[in-house]
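[09:14] KT: can someone run the structure on this one? pasting the chain below
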Amino acid sequence: MSLDIDGVRLALADRRWRFDIALATDGVHALLGRSGSGKSTLLNLIGGYLEPDAGRIAWHGEPLSGLAPAERPVTTLFQHDNLFAHLSVADNVALGLDPSLRLTPQQRERVSGSLDQVELAGYEKRKPGSLSGGERQRVSLARCLLRNRPILLLDEPFGALDPDTRTAMIALTRELIERQRPCVVMVTHDEDDAHAIGARVLELVDGGVRRR
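[09:31] RB: done, structure tokens below
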């Protein structure tokens, strides 16, 4: 079984892409390429933020095209932490379970457990503005883990971090990926990041994607 991207075509302004590839369900796949090569475009197609002009995206044989992002078996960790400043750390993570934040005590325990996994136990009541950049990314990662979707998209999540924090965040993300074993598709400009997280490298060139 795999994440199948079959004959997917998209035209935006003067750019044209065609993607054809099958990605293993329990692997980490890093998309490398020049700016404009289509890395984020492919991620957005998988996540449902863009719809293809033609072709098919399927998970375990079931088509994803036409499904809204929230309906897909996908969660995304963005380069910028995407947290709500007025909400506590716990509530930012809890959004991964229920956007209304009407959680049961058992769900609140799951939120705390997810924060513990990213080494932020005890941070539940803090606000994002009181955290470092690396800590905010850990909160976002905790939310992704709590959603526990089988496809995890990483949109340059380490690019804005300082070198030491970046190294620690990559190591933590790799550890958690090995534990949950999702299908991971990561956009990065840094091949060292791809190797550090144990990814198979895919290169986007000439409007398409190829394995290295």
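[09:33] KT: thanks! Residues 163-180 form the longest helix (18 residues).
[09:34] RB: yep, looked fine to me
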